[in-house]
């Protein structure tokens, strides 16, 4: 009898161990299936040049949302360009025009910095760091670096150079740097920054992320920040009108930078 009880106890323990192993296997399989169904976030930024200004999408967004941001922004640029692109009037006009296209302002800020070595990334980072993780900041940095590889004869580069090689009206020998950098976060917040400063000579595309020496910077940069979001439901009512107004300018003034597809283990 004692031997039978020991055998039964041993058998029960073995059954429990086997059941536990099956439960663990099912849990692992379920978790693996869940991960397979969960879309992976974009590992690279999606970058566009809009009439010479830079727009970067971080995270996954629908094609319709991207087009709404890009097309409305392009129309706002074109309507505002009657004013000098380096002036405060241009930015005020652009923001007003975007308001009519249902870009709602969350906050604005202006800052005048002391004279110092200058690059677009240097002046943008303090604001971007408040809205993006280190990984996302790396994507933005990589996007700016990729812009520098644009072909020298490309329309996108020519348009961008117009924003960083703008003739200074008051000082003919000086150059004004005045690009608008817009980054859209994964939660659809639109962060726009425009640094404006003068240089003693014409600068090239490396000003995006390589600092210009302080002796070549003529004044302290003025940084304008603007946080907005697009009211998508309301914009839908004017979407077709915007596309109609833009016409062929969608292809001539809007440039998409091709990004390499992320590789997977099966691609090698």
Description:
The chain has one domain (47-257): 3-Layer(aba) Sandwich (Delta-endotoxin CytB). The protein has helices spanning 2-37, 63-80, 88-100, 120-128, 134-147, 155-164, 232-235, 239-246, 249-252, and strands at residues 46-50, 53-57, 103-112, 166-167, 175-177, 181-184, 190-199, 222-230, 254-257. The protein has 268 residues and is of the alpha+beta class. The protein is globular. The protein starts with a helix and ends in an 11-residue tail after the last strand. Strands 1, 2, 3, 4, 5, 6, 7, 8 and 9 form a 9-stranded mixed sheet that branches. Helix 2 packs across helix 3 and helix 2 (63-80) crosses helix 8. It is built from 9 helices and 9 strands. 43% of the residues lie in helices and 19% in strands.
**Shape call:** globular
Number of domains: 1
Provide the residue-averaged pLDDT: 85
Helix content: 40-55%
Q: Name the CATH class.
A: Alpha Beta
Span between N and C termini?
64 Å
Structural topology:
Elements lengths: L1 H36 L8 E5 L2 E5 L5 H18 L7 H13 L2 E10 L7 H9 L5 H14 L7 H10 L1 E2 L7 E3 L3 E4 L5 E10 L22 E9 L1 H4 L3 H8 L2 H4 L1 E4 L11
Parallel strand pairs: 2-6
Antiparallel strand pairs: 1-2, 1-9, 3-8, 4-5, 5-7, 6-7, 7-8
Helix pairs in contact: 2-3, 2-8
């Amino acid at each position: 009898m004692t031997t039978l009880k020991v055998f039964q106890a041993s058998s029960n323990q073995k059954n429990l161990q086997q059941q536990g192993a099956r439960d663990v296997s099912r849990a692992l399989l379920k978790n693996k299936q869940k991960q397979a169904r969960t879309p992976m976030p974009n590992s690279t930024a999606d970058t566009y040049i809009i009439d010479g200004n830079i727009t970067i999408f971080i995270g996954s967004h629908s094609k319709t949302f991207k087009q709404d941001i890009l097309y409305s922004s392009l129309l706002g640029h074109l309507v505002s360009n009657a004013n000098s692109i380096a002036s405060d009037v241009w930015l005020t006009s652009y923001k007003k025009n975007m308001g009519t296209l249902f870009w709602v302002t969350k906050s604005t800020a202006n800052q005048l910095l002391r004279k110092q070595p200058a690059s677009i990334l240097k002046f943008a980072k303090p604001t971007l760091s408040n809205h993006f993780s280190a990984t996302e900041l790396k994507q933005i940095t990589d996007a700016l670096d990729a812009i520098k590889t644009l072909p020298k004869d490309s329309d996108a580069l020519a348009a961008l150079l117009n924003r960083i090689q703008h003739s200074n009206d008051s000082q003919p020998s000086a150059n004004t740097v005045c690009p608008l950098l817009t980054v859209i976060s994964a939660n659809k917040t639109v962060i726009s920054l425009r640094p404006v400063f003068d240089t003693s000579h014409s600068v090239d595309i490396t000003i995006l992320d390589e600092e210009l020496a302080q002796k070549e910077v003529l004044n302290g940069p003025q940084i304008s920040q603007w946080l907005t979001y697009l009211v998508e439901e309301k914009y839908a009512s004017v979407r077709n009108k915007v596309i109609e107004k833009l016409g062929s300018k969608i292809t001539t003034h809007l440039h998409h930078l091709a990004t390499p597809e992320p590789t997977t283990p099966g691609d090698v």
